[in-house]
Design brief:
The complex is a heterodimer of chains A (193) and B (596).
Chain A: E1 9-14, H1 24-35, E2 36-37, E3 42-48, H2 55-59, E4 63-69, E5 79-83, H3 87-91, H4 103-112, E6 119-125, H5 139-142, H6 145-158, E7 164-165, H7 183-190
Parallel strand pairs in A: 1-3, 1-4, 4-6
Antiparallel strand pairs in A: 2-7, 5-6
Helix pairs in contact in A: 1-6
Chain B: E1 2-4, E2 10-12, E3 16-21, E4 31-36, E5 42-48, H1 55-59, H2 67-71, H3 79-94, H4 100-126, H5 133-136, H6 141-151, H7 159-174, H8 195-215, H9 217-223, H10 253-282, E6 299-301, E7 304-306, E8 317-319, E9 322-324, E10 343-346, E11 379-380, E12 385-387, E13 399-402, H11 411-420, H12 424-437, H13 447-477, E14 497-506, E15 509-518, E16 521-528, H14 530-534, H15 546-551, H16 563-570, E17 592-595
Antiparallel strand pairs in B: 1-2, 3-4, 3-17, 4-5, 6-9, 7-8, 10-13, 11-12, 14-15, 15-16
The chains are: A alpha/beta (193), B alpha+beta (596).
């Protein structure tokens, strides 16, 4: 459903970057931010494995796009998009991170408070390896970052809030992740041998 | 067969085995197995799980000044605590002193995390072990209002308020979207609250959910962003400019006042909602004093919240520091993180390999080499374990010990150490709470004691936040806006080799990181986290860990619905807390309980 450009939109990536393909969501939103500028009504957020800390971001959004690694039982690297009421039951599949409140609980918490986003789009990628602690994204999942980002751009266009390619490279200081945990530095060094 | 452990527990694994496994897979999650006797009393307990044991591999060769950013990603709740522990370890190794303002800001952030974590833990993870949501639907709103007004002056207490809430809750439950309430054993005989107390607790569940968002704004202000606030070796990464008007990133008076108002609200919410709820709920469970485990025997607190910057001695630390062994409250023993004889990790019963497994290793010399072998009495296969053999290796958690002793860590441990040290700020509120409930001091050593200590500590933390905020503002007003020491920022200023440790009291207990730096890069990095202490398996001498000890001798109403086990394990606020609320893709609970 098209939403007016006044709608507040949250583009969120979730997952644990330290655990191989589990980092897909965060890496996708990181790359999206590096490539595209967005209008003022769009917020970009690296949610990591933060559970209830994310509730307030959800409450402040009318529309939500989430990137996440989801175990749908598909071929590794396959993208799957689900919308609206289908989203909670899929995000509930995440069971890798020991500590996190599942994103399903974050959604139901916002719902319980009566302030859940009206429109939800989950851009999920089937992981290959969720057990390689410290490992990088696997090639089939890494290859889905670009298509996932393009999909998010399409949704933003539908919501009258199109992202525009950056004309100048994003300065290092404005990237979502720094301190050696940004995608390139992290990946280059997780497999030194 | 019955075995006596050196730390004073009689284990008997001859009875019926009850397996509570949140997941079909063992990695990444916690599993508990107990044996119950013919009266369904727990006579043997085995806890197994995994901790994040790979951080050392990821960090080796990296810049020590970035280690905090990695450790912040270890898990979703301890974020800031790991980052603080990490920068302290690097500062300890390199001899870097931080400015006083940085100490105050770090303390405020750490205390803020305590308040947030305790509140969220109580209402959103633990309360449902005591509060029956479904029973709340039957409550009389008028009687609920009368109950609420009898325990607190909190204004949200009218009959209309509770009636509206009940309607909302009914709709929520009827929609089939039970959401966070999905996994409860509603109607279980171990729930003792009347419907009205249940409804009051549900109201506060929602209020706490709403309020917790405010608390974390403190992290956004002092850490630059949230989630994942920024940290800095040598101080804090926020600049102070009191005269600034909305300068990006800099802390001005408006920001300081916002923090101040959030602190006031934290104190008010704890005093008027959280603590009264613990008393009200506790009063219905006064005869359920199980779950003490190691708390009455051996507890440890590293201490935290330094009054004076860079002074991590017991005298400077406002959270108590020391160890109590074998229930001797007359003697609080000192801790030295650098002494290779004190803190050691054992792997006799853990899925790792040491050259000599009869000995423990100090974290500076820690080795993490996986070795997934099952004991001969294991039932099932490596990929589908039916019953673990606790005589062999059975957990991904190592067994840390202090001078060979298994200890409990966490808020209750901190309060017991503070109590034993006769610190009035810990002793007096504890005695007052016990008196209100009409319970003896011995009642503290229980699941309920753990839950009560956490609430008391939340109140304490709120007041300490106020203290450090005032201290910070006073110094700023006196002209000191220094927040970082960059003298040793450049690696050229570092020695060729250095080693250090950093510690904190995370919400769930003692946390420390050990680091070795060689030629300006990380050479070894080890984290020993609170749940490693509490969730540890047996050690070479056969001592059981805190989780296992806490389950001993607990009667279960119905082993098929192990509410008592969840209640006690949750009272530790384990790092694996979420593991008992796991869903499959179709939204169904995956936890299985097997009674054999």
């Amino acid at each position: 459903m098209p939403a007016s450009s006044k709608n507040r939109i949250l583009v969120l990536g979730i997952g644990n970057i330290l655990w191989a393909d589990e980092g897909f969501g965060v890496r996708a939103v990181e790359e999206f931010h590096r490539r595209y500028a967005v209008p003022d009504n769009v917020t970009i957020l690296d949610g990591g494995t933060q559970g209830l800390y994310l509730v307030n971001f959800l409450e402040e959004a009318d529309c939500l796009i989430v990137f996440d690694a989801i175990d749908y039982g598909l071929t590794p690297g396959q993208l799957k998009v689900v919308r609206d009421e289908e989203v909670p039951r899929f995000t509930g599949a995440k069971k890798m991170s020991l500590h996190q409140t599942g994103f399903q609980e974050v959604i139901s918490a916002a719902d319980l408070l009566g302030r859940c986003p009206k429109h939800l789009v989950l851009i999920g990628c089937q992981p290959l390896d969720l057990e390689d602690w410290g490992g990088p994204l696997t090639p089939p999942v890494r290859d889905q970052i670009a298509p996932a980002i393009e999909f998010a751009c399409e949704i933003l266009r539908q919501w009258d809030s199109p992202a525009t390619p950056r004309t100048a490279p994003l300065p290092e200081s404005e990237r979502l992740l720094a301190n050696d945990i940004d995608y390139l530095r992290y990946e280059m060094r997780t497999r030194p041998e | 067969m019955s075995i006596q452990t050196p730390n004073g527990f009689k284990l008997d694994n001859s009875g019926k085995r009850v397996v509570v496994d949140p997941l079909t897979r063992i990695e990444g999650h916690m599993r508990v197995e107990v044996n119950v006797d013919s009266n369904n009393v727990i006579r043997n307990a085995v806890s197994t799980g995994t901790m994040w044991r790979g951080i050392e591999t990821i960090l080796r060769g990296r810049d020590p000044r970035d280690a905090w950013a990695f450790t912040e990603r270890i898990c979703g709740v301890c974020t800031g605590t790991h980052a603080l522990t990490s920068v302290r370890a690097v500062e300890n190794a390199l001899g870097i002193a931080i400015p006083d303002n940085a100490n105050s800001i770090r303390n405020i952030m750490q205390l803020c995390l305590q308040v947030h974590d305790h509140l969220v833990h109580f209402y959103h993870l633990h309360a449902l072990d005591w509060v029956d949501i479904v029973s709340a639907l039957k409550a009389d709103p008028k009687a609920t209002s009368a109950l609420a007004q009898s325990v607190s002056s909190w204004p949200l207490s009218s009959p209309g308020y509770f009636k509206d809430l009940q309607i909302r809750l009914t709709k929520f439950v009827e929609s089939g979207q039970l959401g966070p309430f999905k996994n409860g054993y509603w109607g279980h005989a171990a729930y003792k609250l009347p419907p009205e107390a249940n409804l009051m607790a549900v109201a506060h569940y929602l209020e706490a959910l709403d309020f917790q968002k405010e608390i974390v704004k403190v992290h956004t202000i002092y850490g630059g962003k949230n989630p994942h606030p920024n940290w800095l070796v040598g101080g804090v990464p926020c600049a102070i400019n009191v005269d600034g008007t909305g300068a990006v990133g800099a802390i001005n008076m408006e920001r300081l006042n916002l923090v101040s108002s959030i602190i006031d609200r934290c104190i008010e919410f704890t005093e008027k909602v959280y603590l009264p709820d613990v008393v009200a709920i506790g009063s219905f469970y006064k005869d359920w004093l199980h779950g003490g485990g190691l708390s009455g025997k051996s507890v440890m607190s590293y201490g935290d919240i330094p009054e004076n910057a860079n002074d991590y001695s017991a005298k400077s630390l406002k959270l108590p520091r020391g160890v109590i062994i074998n229930g001797n409250l007359n003697e609080v023993l000192p801790i030295d993180h650098a002494d290779p004889e004190q803190i050691q990790e054992f792997v006799t019963h853990s899925w790792y390999k040491y050259p000599d497994e009869s000995k423990g290793l100090h974290p500076w010399d820690g080795v993490t080499e996986p070795n997934y072998q099952l004991g001969p009495k294991t039932k099932g296969t490596k990929t589908d374990i039916k019953e673990l053999d606790e005589g062999g290796k059975y957990s991904w958690i190592k067994a840390p010990r202090w001078r060979g002793h298994a200890v409990e860590v966490g808020p209750l441990a901190r309060y017991i150490v503070g109590y034993a040290q006769n610190k009035p700020e810990f002793k007096e509120p504890t005695e007052k709470l016990l008196k209100t409930l009409g319970l003896p001091v011995s009642a503290l050593f229980s699941t309920l004691g753990r839950t009560a200590a956490r609430a008391l500590e939340c109140e304490w933390a709120g007041r300490e936040m106020r203290y450090f905020q005032d201290k910070l503002v006073a110094r700023i007003k006196a002209g000191d806006s220094s927040t970082a020491n960059v003298e040793k920022w450049k690696p050229e200023s570092w020695p060729k080799e250095a080693k250090g440790y950093g510690f904190t009291e995370a919400p769930r207990g003692a946390l420390a990181h050990w680091i070795k730096i060689k030629e300006t890069k990380i050479d070894n990095y080890q984290c020993v986290v609170p749940t490693t202490w509490n969730g540890s398996p047996r050690d070479p001498k056969g001592n059981i860990g805190a989780f296992e000890a806490s389950l001993m001798d607990t009667p279960m109403a119905n082993p098929e619905q192990p509410l008592e086990i969840l209640r006690t394990i949750h009272s530790f606020d384990p790092c694996l807390a979420c593991s008992t609320h796991v869903m499959s893709p179709d939204g169904q609970e995956m936890a299985t309980v097997k009674v054999r």
